Amino acid sequence: MISGDPLAGRDGELTRIRRTFSGGNTSGVVIVGAAGVGKTRLAREVLRLAERAGEHTSWIVGTESAKALPLGAFAALLSDVGADPWPNIRQLIKSFVAQQRQGRVLIGVDDAHLLDGLSAHVVHQLAQNRATRLVVTVRAGAEEPDAITALWKDGLLARLDLAPLSVDATRAMIEEALGAAVDARSARRFWNLTGGNPLFLHQLVKDQVDAGRMRLTARVWMWDGDVAVSQSISDMVGRQVRSLTPDIALVVDTLSQCEPLPVDVLSDLVDVADLEAAEQMRLVTVERSGGQLVARLGHPLFGELRRAAAGEMYLSKIRGRLAERLAKDPDPDMQATVRRGLLTLESDLPADPPLFLQSAQHAMTLLDLELADRFASAAADAGAPEAAEVRALNLLLLGRGAQTEEVLRDLQRDTAGDDGAAQWSTLRAANLIWMLGRVRDAAAILESLDARTPADRFARLAVEACVDAISARCETAAAKASEALNSGQLTDFHAMMASVALTMALGALGRADDLISVAESSLERAMTSFQASHMRFWYASVYARACRLTGRIDECAAMAQRLADSAHEVPSLAYANLASLLGGSALMRGDIRDAVQLLHEALAGVERHGVTTGLRPATCFALAEAHAKLGEPGPADEAIAECGVPQDFLFMQTAHSIATGWAQAANGCVGDAVHGVLEAASQACERDQPTHELWCLQVAAQWGDASRAGRARELAGRLHLPLADAVARHAESLAAGDGEQLLLACDEYRALGDRAAAADAAAQAAVAFTAGQQRKRGLYAAAVAKELSDACGGLCTPALRVPASQPLTGRQREIVEFVVAGLSNREIATRLVMSVRSVEGHIYRACQRVGASSREELAAIARRGPAPH
């Protein structure tokens, strides 16, 4: 399962070494780094590349056993190891010089710090004489012979300090080893545990895969759960921690349960002398932070190794002592309370319901809903009366719709007639809407609700607004949501419900100026309230779509980055929401390949957690569009097949039609795609969703249809949005074949942040100029389209597949699209209800127009798009 090249992530270092060799100022390079950092593998790769180039190579290794022998590292190259080593030294140097006469020579010397003095002298002489080139590895901190130190001190060889892998390089190495993408959370977790050490990393990844802790979900590797520790990783990292005295083991085990810890706290639990001994053994590091000494484990894997080996009763006792000691001081923040709550929950101490309930709320604020469920369940089991409400809300946010419905249905029945019973009903209705897609059932509950107090009435109004927004009754939704929010009597959860509905409605109606204030207050609430914290990404995704509909792409990108920075650690379910948000934002900006990566991570999270909310279809819509824009019809079709839009979610129908259209366009069915989005535009018009209609007309124009240019101008007059003006200009200039106006539309899209739409408009301008015999302007427009396409990651849209130099007829273009999609002539003929001979004729004439000599070359030219000629 684990394969690939462990050199992944070292491209920069390899390039530096190549430049060193080509510079000619030194005889080579000394690679210095810690054990396991990848020195040997990098040096081996340098030799491998030299061999491929026809050079002579030799590999010399320093070892502890050979260090006692004169010239021990070179013993295999000597025929006679006599009492006098100097003839052998001369013989070695001459032999390498002789090889130089037959071609370039590269010598690799591994673990040069273990060389005996004479072997080190030979290496130094070779470097000094510049007879050969050298790549030498040395362990950082080791005592190497003076001759080896002189290699870089005297400037004979360049020194390269090989640092641990970065987070990005760690991710690249994991993906190389597993042969598929890995989600960002898992990659960072591996990096945190291994410190970027490639040797540890490769083994730890293997351990998690072998133990089933790391699984491939929706084509993305994800790691959840505890760390699996094998004997191999224990041998690499844990030799020090296997034979500790009980007292020093207690120091390590205490920190393994809770780190970092102030030294004064740790000293109340272990003997100070044992702590000092552990520090001397480098099992523990002690640093000064904020005016106090803080202790942590010397390596993150030490804690994993000790936890795997220790007994549960022993660790439970340690956790209990830690919890009791931490309780003596006030918790400095929410994380500290959650940490103390978890220690108590997993210890031998009696249950602490108030602490568990508070920890549940804090865990919800910190986005860890699964941990919050553990706390809320423990609080309920211990008799805390408020725990039921917290747990029910947490289950809803976890996306466990069926389980939440069961809990809330029972609570609604048991509290019928009580004060506050209406809150359970509105919570249940919200769950039915968003988690189960049962909009009509939710509406029935709300209709029969007895709202006795103003708070109950406004809570019902907030959730009713959600029903209206999803049912595409935008004006009604906006009115109800605004009234509920202005009442000031909503809980944070119900306020977020109203904000979601209002944002959906305002975005569809094109009221862009009103969106900002709603978003600011909603996101501020979500940052501070346990009821609303996890909804920050959900709300942000709704707001992002409103930004897309109203042309505020840069504002959307800034908001998405703000949310990404709002939490230091984002648990897995929250990360799925965040990845979808960031992926959607990247797609809007035209960062298509980044969007694909993030959206696949989001979809893997959806699969991993069994999410049934709108997160799945929204992610699939964006994924289908992204793959289609890259000319990847298969993955685009897969995304459409997996979207699963609830039947009553009318609000999503526009996005569904557009995503389906992009997939059709990638398959060559541009006519079907245009027909579908124009039908969707008509439906949006009937529902009074002007920005939805505008979006449909925009993508139709991007696919070459300008039949509703007049309607686009009407919408521009109504909406007063820069995006609407750009779409109207795009459609009108496309209809008129006006290249200059198409370039202006390109500039307007680019100013809005939509580089993909700008690329399409520029490509269409190139065709229009060429058709009008304006060759130089056509070349310029084609260059602009190519530049924008490259910036987006290499687009392959219908507009960019039209050769600018020789415009095709409408029928020829349609057939070329099918050719690009891989359809045979007979399949094309069946699709277009024409003879195979006619298809062949159109392909022949299209080849003549673009200068292609075959069907395959025609497809290749179409994929390249309007490059300047």
From TrEMBL:
GO terms for molecular function: adenylate cyclase activity; ATP binding; DNA binding. PANTHER family: GUANYLATE CYCLASE DOMAIN-CONTAINING PROTEIN (PTHR16305:SF28), TESTICULAR SOLUBLE ADENYLYL CYCLASE (PTHR16305). InterPro entries: AAA_16, P-loop_NTPase, Sig_transdc_resp-reg_C-effctor, TPR-like_helical_dom_sf, Tscrpt_reg_LuxR_C, WH-like_DNA-bd_sf. One of its GO terms (cellular component) is cytoplasm. It comes from the Bacteria. GO terms for biological process: regulation of DNA-templated transcription. Pfam families: AAA_16 (PF13191), GerE (PF00196). Keywords: ATP-binding, Nucleotide-binding. This is LuxR family transcriptional regulator. The keyword Heme does not apply. CDD domains: LuxR_C_like (cd06170). Residues 801-866 form the HTH luxR-type domain.
